Amino acid sequence: MILPWMKLASDTSLLAMESQAVIWARMTQIAMGRGTPAETMLMVTEKVSAFAEAAATIATGGSAHKVVRGYRRHVRANVRRLKRK
User: Fold this and answer.
1) Which of 10, 32, 46, 57 has the fewest CB atoms within 10 Å, i.e. is most exposed?
2) Which of 39, 43, 28, 27 is closest to 75 using CA atoms?
3) Cβ-proximal residues to 78 (8 Å cutoff; 6+ apart), any chain
């Protein structure tokens, strides 16, 4: 009974840390003058599409675990992409 909640808490904590890595990378690029308008626009549009994806997941009977997994997948992709820049 408690194991699924512990897994969700763990995944949510990892999501928070991974998200901070993306925020740090983007803000560092902007502060150093290497930020682009396209990246800035991407920051905003990603939030809207992630919310829509999460809402659709919940509306179709998905779980909080599935929503967090989806967010983590997107965040990890951003970390990999931003490290290459």
Assistant:
1) 32
2) 43
3) 22, 46
In angstroms, the Cα distances linking 34 to 27, 31, 37, 40 are 10, 8, 10, 11
* CB count in 10 Å sphere of residue 13: 10
DSSP state of 85: -
Calpha distance 64→70 (Å, rounded): 10
Per the document, the length of the chain is: 85
Instruction: Reduce the DSSP state of residue 80 to 3 states and report it.
Output: helix
